[in-house]
Predict the 3D structure of the following.
Amino acid sequence: MEIYIQKRSPVIRWIVAAVLALCFVAELILILNDRTAVIDGSVFTVFQNIRDPFVTIIAKGVTFCANTATIAGLCAILLILPTRIRFGIPLTSVVCISAGCHYLLKEIIERVRPDEVHHLVTVSGFGFPSGHANAGLVFYLFLMVLLRRYLILHDYKGIAYLLSAFLPVLVFAIGVSRVYLGVHYPSDVVGGWLLGGTLFIAFVTLYDAFYPIKYRLHYAPPAWEAMRKKRAWRRPSHVGKETQLIEFPKNRTPWRREVIPEKRRREKERETSAPNRRTETGE
């Protein structure tokens, strides 16, 4: 039996998340000590000087993609669709947790936004960290991960790679648009990205470890079609040390998987090989 092994360690993810969290804390310390005023002022002035009516329309359209109503509407649509267990519930959960974190930090830090004279859109509340930068990164990158896994699994690699290129660019454009529209300082946007990156990596790691396995979307291993014909896929367990074998029964779809521990797999192989031995020996 040909077995495909997919090795992914959550340790590296947690290290990256910790580094991003430390960068967020470091930036917060600099902001509280007023060490970012010069850079913020310089970059903010550059964006004010390049304003153009056509660019303003584009910036408003880009920032609309991360509005609270927009993301809430997309989550509602995903919860209505039949694939809500695989897409809607995970995305809605991470968006709600992320929104709660950045709202709480805003109320604690209480950093004021730029002067209302520079605002091109109506906003309220405090500035750091940027809610649009944070929510846009968490929602669209987590959506990218789920869609990419789903599309590659069903052999739509071209669309998966296109989304992998487009959605990160959209996340970056959302953050830049907030500075262009005059409602955030650059450090607010960077803080939103750092917070969102930390939460995004943590959410993906927890999703891979604890989300019910029959609804979880995995990265497609090499030679997926050949592996699917053999109806077997072994992957390392993220929770325990025991390796698991995932079998795909012929009368069920690949998403409904039966997880058989390694010990049971070996016993099953011995049982199937025992009749063959008796036939060869003439018993």
Q: What stands out?
A: Residues 1-7, 220-260 have pLDDT under 50 and may be disordered. The radius of gyration is 24 Å. Residues 224-281 form one domain. The beta strands are 232-235, 244-247, 258-261.
